[in-house]
């Protein structure tokens, strides 16, 4: 036994002196304390942090004004006083254990007894702080329950914390939301704490507004005003348990009294906030999970939360989304920072600065700070520096305030997929886009693209844009955020991937444009199947052409798709040209050029777009592309009423198509050339071009182009007043379009046919066709085409003497023409409006309308149309009794119309001129003018105008006393009238009219 005891003693480590054991015990206690409180913020770990000062309570009696700490604080300090006791007991434990180990001569029973005593003492030591804390918690709960109905305003023995930062004096705008939130927070909610969640993109002024609101309601919250910034110095989110610890510290809970478990901290936090009218500002929150535990249970409290993304999970909160301030408010903000006089001296530069700064309060304030620090700068200097896209974000930095860092915080909060989507959107030039744009950029499916777009919107890195007519949402990026995205793309995306993403996007535009053209009969009619086949032979790569879901994006409503995507495609042409993607650049322009007559009002830089595309086709050595783009450019120039330039482009296009042996392309160019020459007054050359186009279309077997040639010939014949030929051509075109099932083209041709019949004085039939044209074209979604139908219908109703209807439809047409920018059409409608007002007996109003139309014709240099306007204005002057002016205007009109080959128009002017001559006593000149007019009307077979002119000449002879000539002219007039009545009994002409369109 002795040997075994000695062996065991030999294996034990040598005993340490008592002092060393105490030192080791103290070291272990420090390690345990660090393990428990080491994760807390430094203010809570600082042993020298301030105590809550004792203050005097002026409301107490004189002998009791000095008050000490409250009961819960005394309980916490009692716990602290128990710590030395625990240390002493710990020392006793160590000593007892050491005696048991070192005394070699004591018995086993005594050694066991000492060990048991040491264990009990150790358990007591461990239990002391917990018992003290439990007692403090119980007293805290009892105190809160007993005072819940009294709503204490503060601590009786402490200064009430007010951590609100000062409000800025540079606060502009937000008056409505400030008033609303102020009223909301001043009314206590009897059920739960009032929560206001303010969200918006970085730099929009969320914190400034929250602080402003807090200061506005500070008198309603006499208890604590606490502020917690929920992000660390590097933008990292602060966990909720650390935030609760900070709040407990701010509420006066000493460090040792803060529980270890998060649930215990929350219970203590809610107990301290119970019954207090306290205000809490949580700034820069990340998500709902970070904020929800910090909202007090007490309904007397209020919480202001700011965040980048909307915290929709806080269902009881009042959510306030902030956007940029208005441009005027931004200028006012700039003036409040810099100097109103300095800003007022350079108003245009100030406006440019706030526009380039994106009207964000933060960036405008940074710009103002830079100007304040540089009094030698003009505002124009800063505006010029901000115009440089490459350095704009660098300019928006003043000291430690940096917009790049601000938006970078939002960028770091999202996941890797969202970050890549955000980066690649930075290389897209479109101002607005649908979510499908992300699909080719990232080469993902449409569902993933929708999800990514929604995630970027929630992160405030993308914002909702306008909603399409079909209710489909579009998106856009703030200019400065797009600049940041472009920077990230340049830094994090290889050039090869950026180019591949762009090629996929441009290929997607081509694929969708092709699907839209196949589904849109107007595109087929304007291009012809042969043109589409030619494009397919030389086409650039598409993206996912075999995906039916993707194709439906443009097939469901092709015309609407083109309206919304024409500007993004035009920008894509420019970008493809810059990236030297020649095949994509020119073909994108050709596809959009098929609809330029419909889209010219939606983009004001078509000419530049086509010039860039022409250059791309030239660099790609593609003659077909050059010919097609010349034609598209000509169509655009026609829509801009620049007919002379358009004629040149159509001639070049036709020559190129001849060079490459493309008959269909040549026919298409000749049809456009003939229509343009007709509008310029070159009727004979127009006929030649259109007849040649008809021959080529028949040789090639292209019925679409054949129909277009027939319709063009109908217009040329009508202008020359060959109304029978015009009607025949238009009916040929109408039959072809009906066979092809081209409803929209059928409606356009019906409108032209109605115009023929109106001139032919077959008004019932004209009204029927015009009404049918409105019915058909209204379903195609082409505003300009519909407005032309309205104009024709209004002119028919004018001829029928229904002036109210005429006014209604002509006014509707003018509104659409003005919106689309079609000046020539506005001038034509203004002339029709003048004719209506003249017929209503309002020559002064008619004069204003006609002068407006003539001014447009003069501005556009349209001499032929100007001559027709002079004739109408001359008639108006005659009605006003201003005969010398009428004489001059009508004489000029008759001469110009004769020069252009419009003999009927010249005769019409001579007939009105004869009345002016008669009023001026020029009987001989009046007789000559009427004789010439009768001759021309007879040659054209216009029995109605011939009859009316004969009657006017007979009356002229009566006025001069030549009764013989008067009887002869009356006899001729009666003969022509009988012929006219016989023609009007034609069953087709006299058939009942359909209801007028609504």
Describe the protein in words.
With 998 residues, this protein is mainly alpha-helical. It has 47 helices and nine strands. A five-stranded parallel beta sheet has the order 2-3-4-1-5, sandwiched between helices. The chain has a two-stranded antiparallel sheet with strand order 6-7. β3, α10 and β4 form a beta-alpha-beta unit. α42 packs antiparallel against α43. The longest helix is centred in the first third of the chain and has 39 residues.
Question: How do the strands of the widest beta sheet line up side by side?
Answer: 2-3-4-1-5
Number of helices: 47
Low-pLDDT parts are: 1-17, 30-104, 114-134, 140-158, 984-998
Rg estimate, integer Å: 44 Å
Form type: elongated
- Span between termini: 122 Å
Query: Class by helix and strand content?
Result: mainly alpha
Residue share in helix: 55-70%
What is the percentage of strand-forming residues?
A: under 5%
Mean pLDDT across residues: 82
In this structure, how is the largest beta sheet organized? 5 strands, parallel
By DSSP, the count of extended strands is: 9
Keywords:
two-stranded antiparallel ribbon, 998 residues, 5-stranded parallel sheet, 47 helices, disordered N terminus
Helices, strands, pairings?
Blueprint: H1 2-11, H2 18-37, H3 42-45, H4 71-102, H5 108-146, H6 175-186, E1 194-199, H7 206-216, E2 225-229, H8 240-250, H9 262-273, E3 279-285, H10 288-291, E4 302-307, E5 318-321, H11 327-337, H12 340-345, H13 347-356, H14 361-373, H15 379-386, H16 392-395, E6 397-398, E7 401-402, H17 403-413, H18 416-425, H19 438-442, H20 446-458, E8 463-467, E9 473-476, H21 479-492, H22 495-519, H23 521-527, H24 529-537, H25 548-555, H26 558-578, H27 582-593, H28 596-599, H29 606-619, H30 623-639, H31 643-659, H32 663-680, H33 683-700, H34 703-719, H35 723-740, H36 743-759, H37 763-777, H38 783-799, H39 803-820, H40 823-839, H41 843-860, H42 863-879, H43 883-899, H44 903-919, H45 923-940, H46 943-960, H47 963-984
Parallel strand pairs: 1-4, 1-5, 2-3, 3-4
Antiparallel strand pairs: 6-7, 8-9
Helix pairs in contact: 2-4, 4-5, 8-9, 11-13, 11-14, 13-15, 18-20, 18-21, 22-25, 22-26, 22-27, 26-27, 26-29, 27-29, 27-30, 29-30, 30-31, 30-32, 31-32, 32-33, 32-34, 33-34, 34-35, 34-36, 35-36, 36-37, 36-38, 37-38, 38-39, 38-40, 39-40, 40-41, 40-42, 41-42, 42-43, 42-44, 43-44, 44-45, 44-46, 45-46, ...
């Amino acid at each position: 036994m002795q040997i075994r005891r000695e062996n065991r003693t030999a294996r034990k480590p040598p005993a340490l002196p008592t002092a060393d054991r105490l030192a080791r015990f103290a070291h272990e206690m420090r390690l345990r304390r660090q393990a428990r409180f080491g994760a807390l913020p430094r203010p809570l770990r600082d042993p020298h942090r301030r105590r809550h000062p004792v203050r005097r309570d002026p409301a107490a009696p004189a002998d009791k004004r000095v008050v000490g700490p409250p009961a819960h604080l005394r309980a916490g300090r009692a716990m602290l006083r128990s710590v030395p006791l625990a240390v002493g007991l710990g020392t006793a434990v160590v000593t007892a254990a050491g005696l048991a180990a070192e005394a070699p001569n004591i018995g086993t029973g005594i050694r066991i007894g000492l060990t048991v005593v040491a264990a009990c003492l150790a358990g007591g030591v461990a239990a002391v702080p917990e018992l003290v804390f439990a007692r403090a918690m119980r007293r805290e709960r009892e105190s809160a329950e007993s005072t819940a109905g009294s709503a204490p305003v503060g601590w009786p023995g402490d200064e009430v914390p007010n951590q609100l930062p000062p409000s800025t004096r540079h606060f502009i705008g937000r008056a409505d939301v400030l008033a609303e939130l102020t009223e909301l927070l001043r009314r206590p909610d009897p059920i739960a704490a009032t929560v206001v969640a303010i969200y918006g993109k970085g730099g929009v002024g969320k914190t400034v507004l929250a602080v402003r609101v807090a200061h506005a309601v500070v008198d309603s919250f006499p208890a604590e005003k606490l502020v917690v910034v929920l992000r660390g110095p590097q933008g990292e989110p602060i966990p909720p348990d650390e935030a609760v610890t900070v709040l407990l510290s701010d509420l006066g809970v000493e460090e040792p009294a803060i529980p270890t478990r998060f649930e215990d901290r929350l219970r203590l936090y809610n107990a301290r906030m119970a019954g207090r009218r306290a205000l809490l500002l949580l700034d820069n929150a990340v998500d709902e999970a970070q904020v929800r535990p910090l909202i007090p249970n007490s309904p007397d409290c209020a919480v202001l939360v700011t965040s980048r993304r909307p915290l929709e999970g806080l269902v009881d909160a009042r959510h306030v989304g902030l956007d940029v301030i208005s441009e005027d408010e931004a200028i006012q903000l700039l003036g409040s920072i810099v100097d109103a006089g300095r800003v007022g001296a350079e108003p245009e530069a100030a406006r440019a600065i706030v526009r380039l700064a994106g009207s964000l309060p933060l960036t405008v304030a940074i710009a103002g700070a830079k100007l304040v620090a540089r009094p030698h700068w003009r505002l124009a200097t800063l505006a010029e520096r901000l115009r440089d896209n490459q350095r704009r974000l660098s300019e928006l930095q003043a000291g430690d305030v940096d917009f790049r860092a601000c938006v970078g915080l939002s960028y770091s909060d999202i996941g890797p997929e969202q970050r890549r989507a955000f980066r690649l959107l930075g290389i897209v030039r479109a101002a607005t886009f649908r979510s499908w744009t992300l699909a080719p950029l990232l080469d993902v499916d449409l569902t993933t693209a929708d999800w990514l777009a929604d995630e970027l919107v929630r992160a405030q890195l993308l914002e909702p844009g306008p909603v399409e007519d079909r209710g489909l949402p579009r998106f856009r990026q703030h200019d400065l955020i797009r600049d940041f995205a472009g920077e990230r793309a340049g830094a994090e995306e290889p050039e090869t991937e950026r180019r591949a993403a762009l090629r996929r996007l441009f290929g997607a535009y081509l694929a969708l444009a092709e699907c839209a053209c196949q589904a849109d009969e107007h595109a087929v009619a304007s291009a012809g199947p042969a043109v589409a086949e030619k494009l397919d032979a030389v086409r650039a790569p598409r993206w996912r052409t075999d995906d039916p879901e993707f194709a439906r994006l443009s097939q469901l409503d092709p015309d609407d798709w083109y309206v919304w995507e024409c500007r993004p495609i035009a920008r894509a042409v420019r970008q493809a040209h810059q990236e030297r993607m020649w095949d994509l650049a020119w073909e994108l322009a050709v596809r959009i050029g098929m609809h330029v007559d419909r889209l010219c009002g939606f983009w004001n830089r078509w000419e530049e777009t086509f010039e860039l595309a022409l250059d791309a086709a030239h660099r790609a050595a593609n003659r077909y592309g050059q010919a097609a783009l010349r034609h598209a450019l000509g169509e655009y120039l026609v829509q801009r009423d620049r007919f002379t330039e358009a004629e040149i482009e159509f001639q070049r296009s036709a020559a190129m198509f001849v060079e490459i042996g493309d008959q269909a392309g040549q026919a298409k160019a000749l049809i456009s050339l003939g229509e343009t020459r007709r509008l310029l007054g070159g009727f004979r050359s127009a006929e030649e071009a259109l007849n040649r186009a008809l021959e080529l279309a028949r040789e090639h077997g292209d019925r679409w182009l054949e129909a277009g040639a027939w319709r063009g010939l109908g217009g040329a014949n009508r202008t020359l007043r060959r109304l029978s030929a015009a009607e025949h051509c238009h009916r040929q075109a109408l039959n072809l379009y009906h066979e092809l099932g081209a409803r929209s083209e059928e409606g356009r041709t019906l409108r032209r046919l109605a115009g023929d019949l109106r001139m032919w004085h077959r008004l019932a039939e004209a009204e029927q066709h015009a009404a049918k044209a409105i019915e058909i074209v209204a379903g195609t979604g082409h505003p300009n085409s519909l407005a032309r139908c309205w104009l024709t219908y209004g002119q028919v109703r004018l001829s029928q003497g229904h002036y109210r209807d005429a006014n209604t439809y002509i006014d509707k047409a003018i509104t659409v023409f003005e919106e689309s920018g079609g000046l020539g059409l506005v001038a034509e409608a203004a002339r029709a409006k003048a004719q209506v007002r003249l017929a209503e007996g309002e020559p002064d109003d008619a004069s204003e309308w006609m002068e407006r139309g003539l001014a447009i014709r003069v501005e556009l240099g349209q001499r032929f149309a100007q001559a027709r306007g002079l004739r109408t204005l001359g008639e108006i002057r005659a009605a006003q009794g201003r005969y010398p002016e009428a004489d001059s205007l009508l004489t000029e009109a008759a001469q110009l119309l004769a020069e252009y080959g419009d003999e009927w128009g010249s005769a019409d002017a001579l007939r009105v001129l004869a009345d002016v001559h008669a009023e001026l006593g020029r009987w001989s000149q009046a007789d000559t003018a009427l004789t010439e007019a009768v001759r021309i009307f007879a040659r054209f077979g216009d029995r109605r105008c011939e009859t009316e002119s004969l009657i006017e000449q007979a009356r002229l002879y009566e006025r001069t006393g030549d009764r013989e000539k008067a009887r002869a002219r009356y006899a001729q007039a009666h003969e022509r009238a009988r012929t006219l009545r016989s023609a009007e009994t034609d069953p087709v002409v006299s058939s009942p009219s359909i209801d007028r369109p609504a």
